[in-house]
Amino acid sequence: MSAQEVKEVRAAAKWVRITPRKARLVVEHIRGRTVPEARTMLAFSERAAAREIDKLLRSAVANAEANHDLIGDDLVVKTVYVDEGPTIKRWRARARGRAVRVRKRMCHITLTLAPATTATVTRAPEAPAEEKPKRAPRRKAAPKAKAETKPKAEAKPKAEAKPKAEAKPKAEPKASTAKKKAPAKKKESES
Questions:
Q1: Domains of the chain
Q2: Residues contacting residue 156 through CB under 8 Å, at least 6 positions apart
């Protein structure tokens, strides 16, 4: 081996019974991280794909230690990607005698480890979080002019009742446009 040649360790899990889309969500979290960081991320992930990817990572570390004389904790996840595998097609019964196709997807996960000093990180650098502009403070409403202050202890005098003659007559409701039912005719009973 020449000095320029980099030792890379590769491991692949084929025909994993998880959809590629779900596996890619987990894979994005470990790309570019050291092995201990990646193991921690996978251990605390609640996704089912994390268990399979953790097995694959452990396998790749074991390959590195056994075959290439590398120290597992000094490695970095250089590349990791998920490819689509075959899809199993099944049928599910639906209403009115119909059937719907169920696609049970599989994937192939490939992981490459490299020593930390020579690994080119494919992880995108995180952009510094931009500060949100502060919202202008809310304007306080103008204080309302207070009417005469009344002590709470005093009872409020009741308003005098207006005589009925002075009261305004109520407006009659408008006739509704709906048809009114005619009153039912009473049947004359025979005596």
A1: 9-115 (3.90.470.10)
A2: 150
